[in-house]
Amino acid sequence: MSVEDGRTSATLDAVALAAGVSRATASRVLTGSPRVSESARDRVLRAAASLSYVPNGAARMLVTRRSDAVAFVVCEQEERFFSDPFFATVLKGVHRVVAASRRQLLFAVVAGEADREQLVRYAAGGHLDAAMFLSAHGGETAPARLRERGVPVVLAGRPPSGVGEDLPHVDTDNVDGGRLATQHLLDRGCRRLGLVTGPPDMASSQDRLAGWRRALDDGAGRGQEDARGTPAEVTALVAEGDYTTAGGHRATAELLARMPDLDGVFASNDLMAVGALTLLRERGLRVPEDVAVVGYDDIPLATAVQPALTTVRQPLEELGREMATMVVTALDGGVPASRGRALLPARLVVRDSA
Amino acid sequence: MSVEDGRTSATLDAVALAAGVSRATASRVLTGSPRVSESARDRVLRAAASLSYVPNGAARMLVTRRSDAVAFVVCEQEERFFSDPFFATVLKGVHRVVAASRRQLLFAVVAGEADREQLVRYAAGGHLDAAMFLSAHGGETAPARLRERGVPVVLAGRPPSGVGEDLPHVDTDNVDGGRLATQHLLDRGCRRLGLVTGPPDMASSQDRLAGWRRALDDGAGRGQEDARGTPAEVTALVAEGDYTTAGGHRATAELLARMPDLDGVFASNDLMAVGALTLLRERGLRVPEDVAVVGYDDIPLATAVQPALTTVRQPLEELGREMATMVVTALDGGVPASRGRALLPARLVVRDSA
DNA sequence: CTGTTAGCGCATTCAT
DNA sequence: ATGAATGCGCTAACAG
């Protein structure tokens, strides 16, 4: 049994020496090259194990130009980031694929300008073979800057303006999701509708809003009918939210102030829908009898809340898998992670709130 | 305005050449060495900026034996990890300190054996200057293995058995927290008490259990008195939970089955307390009138739930800051991150559930 | 199949 | 204050 030094770890030379071969042969064995004799391989492996040999990452990076590490970058404050299960689910999908490719998955949060510079420097320094970006807001420069430096990048979600329109990305169909949610409200007879948007600089917000508009336009085109088959005019209002429960609460209050006979709310995510539920309860309004509420994301909380939320589900784990697959494929195949544009379907999950 | 190549980034040679100095001088400027003339410094800086120079991380690591990156490692499944706000808060504290030290904070999840091996290899390869471990379960080998390889390590929480008793760590006073929670139940007159523990292999569970025992023993010693000042016998039962809402639900059911006249529950974390609340409501028991409930952690959900949870608050952000400070200090000072053992106070937050 | 050789890009001696 | 030379540990191209 060998003893670890604790300070200086074994080098390839040491392994080669112990195995009685040259560095080159030792290296071949350890990198899995086929052109090695059985006996040499065996001796090297044994020596490496006995010395607890681990290759020096710096030396390896320097010559291979790879780090075998990829990052999952979230451009948000820690709070947001953790309070939204969105990230956890996508990360899970990513994790599976990256782990299977035997790379180190690293996880970084960019909560401000200093973080951004640090990350770009880190990546430009060669520490990251690729980066996946989540929740990029408008004006986020990191993805484009990394790509300029030759680091493959994939975004979750359509790049917002100013981020790099042609950046590879994978998205769920937020336009269709927004349309489904809105149409559901119309279908159940709601005619005084309110939308609570997400942050206006995020693509998902914009797209869900576009879907809302599309549903309303479609309806206007062919004439809405209420539950009794009677056509009725539709009134629609929009209030700005921010994807937080508090924001949903506030925005719904605004909606109600501007339209007291509100009968349907589409909140652009579940957290805000929960905020809406809370406010409506405070105002003595019943859900869905007085006001129907539809959320988005189908987070675990959606079923825990009273009434259970009708919402739109996105295949988030699949989104993560897809992103990671694009990255890994690009890395393994040498194919530049060019314009992939998977668009994953969203679907309505009807529960009690609408 | 210079144009980026996009494939090959500028090297120090290129910068030196453009500045009309030697590599050595350029290096001195960029590493902030004092022994450089004003004019040389100026030219080098200008050249570096115009070339968008970023030092090659591999080359730098190779010679400095540092990566300027530290990791925050969570040994949990993604779900757990994100669903528990514990991590977010600690991370926030860590982030502040690490960012201020101009190092890259990396974040890794170890969800299984493959991940563990990958991480150890990554760290042993020199990619990590230090690692902070969260939520280490009994038998977790990574921290000790990293330390053996010369990577400074700090744990959040007392090391559970088999993890390395003498590993540096910073903890909150879980024993006292458990005692406070239990004592509060006794003080309000509860005499038929139930404890829902966390996973038995986690130090925090063990310590909160120890605090529970201590409160009960103290009480036994001096004789408990009920709300009317009448001494009464105390009965106490323990059920095993797992820090999840579902686990709290199940464990509380078990408690109730074994002791139908249960009148006080101490759940070792808020998630389980919420599970307890749900079960008690299902059984038609009022909280706190029939059964008082105390949680632990004071997560945001604690105030959102009905009734608002009486719970124990830990200074988690401070815990994060403390861990990161230990790491950064060790790294900057060259002092081995040896036995630090900050013990941060816990305090009771009384709300409606007990 | 194996050993020898040559850098990868940088920080750091040692001279000057 | 500056330049020339050295080596970190490894992989890969080249001989043999």
Provide a concise account of the structure shown.
Two copies of one chain form a homodimer. The first copy, chain A, is of the alpha/beta class and 354 residues long.
Itemize the secondary structure elements and their pairings.
The structure is a homodimer of 354-residue chains.
Chain A: H1 12-19, H2 23-31, H3 38-50, H4 57-64, E1 69-74, H5 78-83, H6 85-100, E2 104-109, H7 113-127, E3 130-134, H8 142-148, E4 153-156, E5 169-172, H9 174-187, E6 192-197, H10 203-222, E7 235-240, H11 245-258, E8 264-267, H12 270-282, E9 292-294, H13 301-304, E10 311-313, H14 316-333, E11 343-344, E12 347-349
Parallel strand pairs in A: 1-2, 1-3, 3-4, 4-5, 5-11, 6-7, 6-8, 8-9
Antiparallel strand pairs in A: 10-12
Chain A binds a DNA duplex (16 and 16 nucleotides) through α2 and α4.
Structure explained in plain terms:
The structure is a homodimer of 354-residue chains. Chain A has 354 residues and is of the alpha/beta class. Chain A has 14 helices and 12 strands. Chain A has helices at 12-19, 23-31, 38-50, 57-64, 78-83, 85-100, 113-127, 142-148, 174-187, 203-222, 245-258, 270-282, 301-304, 316-333; strands spanning 69-74, 104-109, 130-134, 153-156, 169-172, 192-197, 235-240, 264-267, 292-294, 311-313, 343-344, 347-349. In chain A, the strands form 3 sheets. A 6-stranded parallel beta sheet of chain A has the order 2-1-3-4-5-11, with helices on both faces. In chain A, helix 10 links the parallel strand 6 and strand 7. The longest helix of chain A is centred in the middle third of the chain and has 20 residues, at 203-222. The radius of gyration of chain A is 26 Å and the shape is elongated. The N and C termini of chain A lie far apart (67 Å). In chain A, 55% of the residues are buried. The model of chain A is unreliable at 1-6 (pLDDT under 50). Chains A and B meet through helix 4, helix 5, helix 6, strand 2 and helix 7 of A and helix 4, helix 5, helix 6, strand 2 and helix 7 of B. Chain A binds a DNA duplex (16 and 16 nucleotides) through residues 11-13, 21-25, 27-28, 31, 35-37, 40, 55-56, 58-65.
